[in-house]
Each structure stands twice: as C-alpha cells, then as structure tokens.
Design goal:
By secondary structure, the protein is α/β, with parallel strands linked by helices. Helices cover about 30% and strands about 30% of the residues.
Length: about 280
C-alpha cells in the first residue's frame, strides 16, 4: 500500500497527489512513468512521474479525472493509500548535452510530463523557451513551476482569457519564422496538438521529441495495447517510449487507438463498478 501524503486541486478535475513510494522514487528518471491501481478490482492507470524525491521517498503525480478509474483515484484523501504502484516504467528520456537551446511546447495536462524534462535540461544549462497552452485561464496548471525553469514563457489560451488568444502552434511558428534557432523541440499534450506542433517543426527541420500517452494495460510490452507506428514500424509506448521522434509518429492511427475503449469506459462510469 502506498500512502497519499499530499493532495491539491490544480484546476477543474485536475489534481496533484504526492504518494509514498521510496523504491520507485529512488530509481525514477525524467520520462519514466508508473502504473497505479486504486483497489484490487481497479483498472491499471499509467501516469507520468511529474517529480520524484529520493530523500523523502515520494512521487508527484498529476491526475486528470476523466474516467471512472481516475475519478476513483482522486477520491482518495491524505492518509488513504493506493493499492499498487508499479514502476518506474518506460525508457528514461535521453538528455542530449548538445542541446543548448530548447523550445518546449505543452498543452493542458501535458505540462506535467514536461516538467521533469525541463528540470533535466535546465540542470545541463540549456536555454529554454516554453510555450504553454490551455482552453482557458482556469485550466492553466503548473505555471509557476514552468516559469521557474524557463528563460521565456509564452502563454496562449483558446478563448484569450489569459496570454495570447490562439493555439500553441501560433507562437511556435512565429518564433521559427523570425529566425529563432533551437537545437530541439519537445511537444507534449493531446495527440492532435502534438501532431500540429510536429507539422510546424518539420517545415523548419527542427528535431522534435513527443511523449505518447497511448492505451496501456500491463506496462511491460506483453499485451500490445500501447502499440504505435513509428516510420511504419510497430513500437510499444510502454517499453520503447514514451518518447519518440515526433516526425515519425502516425498520429492518425494513435488518435483512433485512443478511442478503442470509449464505450467500455462509458459503461463502467454508468455502472459505477468494474466487470459488469
């Protein structure tokens, strides 16, 4: 059992939870994730490790309560316990020391998995320009953390309630058209957002890394549920990723696969139980 030590509401249906998991915290690296299970009959939920503290033995997880399993998870209060935490999983992000200038493009809850990458590149001395996007001001999360790790932060909202009105690709394109030079772009967020960002960076031959949140079940590559097509070849996000070359990802296939279990999820939510 893994005790919940802290819990905060960041935005509507988005929570930050700090849980006690000393063995995982000791080995976690930027890009790793865990699979958690609320109870013995609960669904396995993959979550990026937003932060880890080996000395304290804790993991920080950002959870968006959108389905039955994540809603059950955020119902836990401080002092309650998560049934299972498996990890760290995935391949840790390779932090390229040759990257001196980085543009980080993040949308919505994609800010959470971006943070450990920003910390790692900041530690290496890279200059970082961050572009944050959300549907509205109320849904902007972890802004203070991003600002503390960036040399410049550009914020856009769909409705113009904060920062620029538009999409994250608007300032990205503007920077590149103005002649700004970067060694690497990282884009993390909804699949269509990452696809759009990669379309822009490909025009400017800017290498781009994306983090894929595909459907995962066992987290070890055995079930095949998280398969993605990279340059026409099958890869598994749980063991080969979650980081991939954004210009090689078949995003259209990824989007379709993300919707495979929508009917079952709606049924589980309606029944308020599993396996019926």
């Amino acid at each position: 059992m893994y005790k919940v030590l802290e819990k905060d509401l960041l935005a509507e249906n988005i929570y930050r939870m700090v849980i006690e998991a000393p063995l995982t915290a000791a080995k976690a690296r930027a890009g790793n994730f865990v699979i958690v299970r609320v109870s013995e009959v609960g669904e396995r939920i993959p979550l990026t490790i937003s932060n880890s503290d080996p000395e304290r033995g804790t993991l920080t997880l950002i959870i968006q309560a959108v389905g039955k399993s994540t809603k059950d998870l955020v119902k836990l209060e401080v002092g309650d316990a998560v049934r299972d935490v498996l990890g760290p999983l995935g391949t840790a992000t390779e932090i390229d020391e040759n990257v001196k200038r980085l543009v980080a493009v993040m949308g919505g809850i994609g800010t959470a998995p971006m943070l450990p990458l920003l910390r790692a590149y900041r530690k290496k001395g890279a200059e970082i320009v961050s572009i944050m996007g959300a549907r509205s001001q109320d849904l902007l999360i972890l802004r203070d953390e991003v600002e503390s790790l960036s040399d410049q932060v550009i914020i856009v909202t769909d409705d113009g309630s904060f920062g620029e009105k538009g999409l994250v690709t608007d300032p990205l394109r503007r920077l590149l058209e103005q002649g700004e030079k970067f060694d690497l772009a990282i884009a993390i967020g909804p699949a269509r957002m990452m696809q759009a960002a990669c379309k822009v960076t490909k025009e400017f031959d800017l290498p781009t890394l994306v983090s894929l949140n595909s459907i995962m079940i066992d987290g070890t590559g055995m079930c095949g549920g998280c398969r993605v097509s990279i340059n026409g070849e099958t890869r598994f996000a749980c063991v080969d990723g979650p980081d991939f070359d954004g210009h090689a990802v078949n995003f259209d296939e990824l989007v379709l696969r993300q919707g495979y279990y929508r009917d079952q999820e709606e049924h589980a939510e309606a029944c308020k139980t599993y396996g019926r």
